[in-house]
Amino acid sequence: MTRRARGAVAREQDPAPVSAVLDHLIGERGWRAHLALGRLKAAWPEVVGSQIAARSEPIKLENGRLTIRVEGGAWAAELALLGPCLATSVARFLGHDLVQEVAIIAGSLRSSWTRS
Q1: pLDDT, tens digit, for every residue of 68-108?
Q2: What sign results for the dihedral spanned by CA atoms 62, 102, 48, 85?
Q3: pTM over 0.85
Q4: CB atoms within 10 A of CB 16
Q5: N or C: which end of the chain has fewer CB within 10 A?
């Protein structure tokens, strides 16, 4: 085989970009929502504001529904009223195909020791 022919064959079999391979793997394994939740947790104060972030945490993202755990019943009631606004803010950050609604539950925050 000539040098030119080998080069042409090699170009036809060039590897796919890593980003394309990772995107395919993430979709295939169903990891998209898990990764999105991780991104949301990391940016939670920027997405919802520091006051809300200090008393809440996103805990689950499944089938377009984001579940947020809130410290205490009064804050749960307050955030329930803000549900549509929170859904819009989160959807802007993550993408509208991932979040359509928000569910609020009251409980103790897992990461409260890291909050100021």
Answers
A1: 999 888 899 999 999 889 999 999 999 878 888 899 998 88
A2: positive
A3: no
A4: 9
A5: C
